[in-house]
TrEMBL record:
<keyword id="KW-0965">Cell junction</keyword>
<keyword id="KW-1003">Cell membrane</keyword>
<dbReference type="GO" id="GO:0098609">
    <property type="term" value="P:cell-cell adhesion"/>
</dbReference>
<dbReference type="InterPro" id="IPR015664">
    <property type="entry name" value="P53_induced"/>
</dbReference>
<feature type="transmembrane region" description="Helical">
    <location>
        <begin position="107"/>
        <end position="131"/>
    </location>
</feature>
<dbReference type="Pfam" id="PF00822">
    <property type="entry name" value="PMP22_Claudin"/>
</dbReference>
<keyword id="KW-1133">Transmembrane helix</keyword>
<feature type="transmembrane region" description="Helical">
    <location>
        <begin position="77"/>
        <end position="100"/>
    </location>
</feature>
<dbReference type="GO" id="GO:0030057">
    <property type="term" value="C:desmosome"/>
</dbReference>
<protein>
    <recommendedName>
        <fullName>p53 apoptosis effector related to PMP-22</fullName>
    </recommendedName>
</protein>
<dbReference type="GO" id="GO:0005886">
    <property type="term" value="C:plasma membrane"/>
</dbReference>
<dbReference type="GO" id="GO:0006915">
    <property type="term" value="P:apoptotic process"/>
</dbReference>
<comment type="similarity">
    <text>Belongs to the TMEM47 family.</text>
</comment>
<dbReference type="InterPro" id="IPR004031">
    <property type="entry name" value="PMP22/EMP/MP20/Claudin"/>
</dbReference>
<feature type="transmembrane region" description="Helical">
    <location>
        <begin position="151"/>
        <end position="172"/>
    </location>
</feature>
<keyword id="KW-0130">Cell adhesion</keyword>
<keyword id="KW-0053">Apoptosis</keyword>
Length: 189
């Protein structure tokens, strides 16, 4: 990307595309029912960020309780949701930043800083949830934190990595805009 510059049409939209993928992963984590699941048969427990569901036996009905009745449940949901909303704002700002013909590199660095703030909120929610869930709610059988929880961590890791990339990109402003003369290491005899 640095070799061809951000005006190279195929490379210009890589960062907003990666932010968009992070938004999709965040939606999957928010909507997914696989934050905690039973690991072995009979499957008796399944939890999301919003509720915990149990069933007494293999053919029984699921009974669900909201996690919003717990202070830690509200805190985990609120902090992860704030991190997700900041990610959506960064996605919109990145589209605006890369759609403008003249790039504003300080604007891009600001997006990186906002991504770090989003990562802090996401990680707080992802740490509060398992610590308080496993200590406050009685679990039966062998349980594991599952696929939707993994999507939440993937979103947080993408926020951190893209934050570094957005913050470091302005350091290569001259190379990106093509203002540097090429250096040849060939000397004639």
């Amino acid at each position: 990307m640095v070799k061809y510059g951000l005006d190279y049409t195929r490379c210009r939209w890589i960062l907003p595309l990666l932010l968009g993928i992070g938004v999709i992963f965040g939606i999957i984590a928010l909507a997914g029912r696989g934050w905690l699941e039973s690991q072995t048969l009979p499957y008796v427990q399944q939890a999301s960020l919003w509720q915990n569901c149990r069933r007494p036996d293999q053919g029984g009905e699921w009974s669900c309780e909201s996690l919003m009745g717990y202070a830690w449940g509200r805190a985990a949901a609120a902090t992860y949701l704030v991190g997700f909303l900041l990610l959506v704002i960064c996605f919109a700002l990145a589209i605006i930043a890369f759609a403008i013909d003249t790039l504003r590199f300080n604007f891009i660095r600001g997006i990186g800083g906002l991504l770090f703030v989003a990562a802090v909120f996401s990680v707080m929610g992802l740490v509060i949830y398992p610590v308080k869930f496993s200590s406050e709610i009685a679990m039966t059988g062998i349980n594991m934190f599952s696929w939707a929880y993994g999507f939440g961590w993937t979103t947080a890791i993408m926020e951190i990595c893209l934050g570094f990339f957005f913050c470091c990109l302005p350091n290569y402003e001259d190379q990106i805009l093509g203002n540097v003369k090429p250096t040849y290491f060939y000397s004639s005899p």
